[in-house]
Each structure stands twice: as structure tokens, then as C-alpha cells.
Amino acid sequence: MASSQLLQRRTGAAPAARGSQAHAALLRPAVSRHTPFTAAPRSAAPVARISRSSWGRRAEPSLLVSVRAAAEDDGRTPDHPYPWEEDYDLLGDKVKAVTDELEKDLKGCNIWLVGMMGSGKSTVGKMLANTLKYTFFDTDSVIELAHDKKPVSQIFAEEGQDYFRQCEAQIIKELSPYRNLVIATGGGAVLRPENWGYMHLGIVCWLNGDVELLARRVAKDGLDKRPLLAEGGAADPQAAARAKLGSLLDERRRFYENADVVVSLEGYGRDAENGAPSPAVMYRLLTAVNEKVQAKKREQAERMNFRIEGAEQLRNMRTMESPAAAAAVQPGGEAAEGPAQAA
């Protein structure tokens, strides 16, 4: 049975055409490739339902509406320094505003995400790519696909860390010439100087989180997925992660500080323990990148705004008298004798 007929039997819809293009359209999932961040709708107050039997009658006032006696606690933190991080409707509006301004000037420039494990590079990167209508790459995932979907921990165990870093550097090199990309790199990608040469062709963003926050996150996900943390069992995974992450961050901090943009993962209010939510981190990143781009534009404009001192005195270089020729003329109007005349 033809595949189009099989699809028709399963879905009950007839194919629009029998060409190869129409067949490919049937197999293509009906999902938008890029879904920008949008806020969840506001919760509405409960309204009393009126049955069909009461239609046409004069309803009792108590059946028309239900009024809340008192405002319920919405869980927001009083005096929050960034209140939009707890109001996704307001956050969605702010994300749209900064994105509309940034898209005009970003011009397809790649965005590279660096940071320690547990900083949320992959989660924030996917959300950022969808919002900017970019394509997202995770270097760890690309390496896994190139090795028959072996997990990173297995590649580390079988081939060693040096081999993994070499693969990572090759991927960074091959992705750098392209445009409209968001690339999440491994935590140790910053250790190789050649990687910075390629990443600085775009904008490098460091997702900077406290060691305690990172330790909680990676311990919750499981240390087995982290080859640098899985060495040797530990009775307290969070304490083991904290010690190892602190050592790694001390080693890598000076490399991370070469990033163009630093984005804090610190959370406030109800997010103090788990860190800022991913949409809030993405908004912080967008804002920081936009400030960086606008500062670069102002710097270029200032370089173009210059004047030449004494320009009003320069009429035409071709008609101006040569200072050397004027000095060679004697006071009596005769030219000074050169070596040939003196002979």
C-alpha cells in the first residue's frame, strides 16, 4: 500500500497532491521550527456557570458573577529588584521589546555561551535561539552524534579528556564561519586559546553562577552524567560536586573573564535557592548583548565624528607654497646657490 494511502487511512484525510513535494509535506511535522518565548496567560478569577435551564430567566444576582472576597497571595516577592522575573506577562513584553531593537543591529552575529556545568547553557541557548530565530548547537550533543550517540561520560572514559577537547575544538572551528547561530560550549572549551580566536568572531556570553548553586543543580541531575565529577563514589553528592566545581572554577575563572558579556544566574525572592529561571536569564543575556551592541555603535559613530585642526587654513595642497622652497629663496629675491652653481 502506498505511504500516502496509509496516511489517509490513519488520519482520515486525503492527500492534496501525489507529487514528491506533496508527499514530503505530509511527512513533515506540523510544528513551527522557531517558537519564541511567550508568557503564560494571566490567571482569571473564577466565574459562576449558568446552566442552560436558567437561560431566558431572570437570574439571581448571586449567579451572575463570583467576586473574590480578598486578593489571594500570588507568590510574588515584595520589593523584588527585578519584579518582571516573577511576572511572565511583563517579562514576555520586555523580551519582545529588547529583541525588536537587537535584531536590527545583531545582523546574524553568532552568540557563544560559555560557563561551568550546571549553568544552564543548553536550556537558555535553546530558548535564546527560538527567540532570535537562530539555529542552536550544543557541542556536547554534536560530539555524541559523531560517536554513534555515545554519552559524553563514555567518550571521556574510552578516549580521554584530551581527545574530547580536540573534538570540541574542531566543532567550534567548523561552526564559526556560519551566521545566525547560538552555540552552547562545554565547560572546558575556554581552556584552549584557539577556541577564543573563533568564538570572538561572535559575541561570547558567560553564564556566571555561584558554586553552591551549580553544585545543587548538578547533584540533582546526577553526577554520573558529568565525567569530571563522577570519578569515585561520594556519600554526599552535593558536597563532592561543590568541592570539585570550586576547584574547576578557580582554574577557569580567568578564562571566563575574557567573555564579552557576563550574565549572573543569581535568583531573588522565591528563586534565591534555585537561581534565576531560564526566561529571566535569557532576558538578562539579551539586555547585556544589546547594551554591548549599542555601545559598539556609539563608539563607531564617535570615531566618524572628527575634525582636522586648522583645516580652514588648508585651501588646496597643490597651490600652497612649499615651505622648503620659500626657505631656499634669498632676501634679495635671488635663489640660493646650490652646490653645482658654486662650482
From TrEMBL:
<dbReference type="GO" id="GO:0009073">
    <property type="term" value="P:aromatic amino acid family biosynthetic process"/>
</dbReference>
<dbReference type="InterPro" id="IPR023000">
    <property type="entry name" value="Shikimate_kinase_CS"/>
</dbReference>
<dbReference type="GO" id="GO:0008652">
    <property type="term" value="P:amino acid biosynthetic process"/>
</dbReference>
<dbReference type="GO" id="GO:0005524">
    <property type="term" value="F:ATP binding"/>
</dbReference>
<keyword id="KW-0808">Transferase</keyword>
<dbReference type="Pfam" id="PF01202">
    <property type="entry name" value="SKI"/>
</dbReference>
<keyword id="KW-0028">Amino-acid biosynthesis</keyword>
<comment type="pathway">
    <text>Metabolic intermediate biosynthesis; chorismate biosynthesis; chorismate from D-erythrose 4-phosphate and phosphoenolpyruvate: step 5/7.</text>
</comment>
<feature type="compositionally biased region" description="Low complexity">
    <location>
        <begin position="323"/>
        <end position="343"/>
    </location>
</feature>
<dbReference type="InterPro" id="IPR000623">
    <property type="entry name" value="Shikimate_kinase/TSH1"/>
</dbReference>
<feature type="region of interest" description="Disordered">
    <location>
        <begin position="1"/>
        <end position="28"/>
    </location>
</feature>
<dbReference type="GO" id="GO:0005829">
    <property type="term" value="C:cytosol"/>
</dbReference>
<keyword id="KW-0547">Nucleotide-binding</keyword>
<dbReference type="InterPro" id="IPR031322">
    <property type="entry name" value="Shikimate/glucono_kinase"/>
</dbReference>
<dbReference type="GO" id="GO:0004765">
    <property type="term" value="F:shikimate kinase activity"/>
</dbReference>
<comment type="similarity">
    <text>Belongs to the shikimate kinase family.</text>
</comment>
<keyword id="KW-0067">ATP-binding</keyword>
<keyword id="KW-0418">Kinase</keyword>
<dbReference type="InterPro" id="IPR027417">
    <property type="entry name" value="P-loop_NTPase"/>
</dbReference>
<protein>
    <recommendedName>
        <fullName>shikimate kinase</fullName>
        <ecNumber>2.7.1.71</ecNumber>
    </recommendedName>
</protein>
<feature type="region of interest" description="Disordered">
    <location>
        <begin position="321"/>
        <end position="343"/>
    </location>
</feature>
<comment type="function">
    <text>Catalyzes the specific phosphorylation of the 3-hydroxyl group of shikimic acid using ATP as a cosubstrate.</text>
</comment>
<keyword id="KW-0057">Aromatic amino acid biosynthesis</keyword>
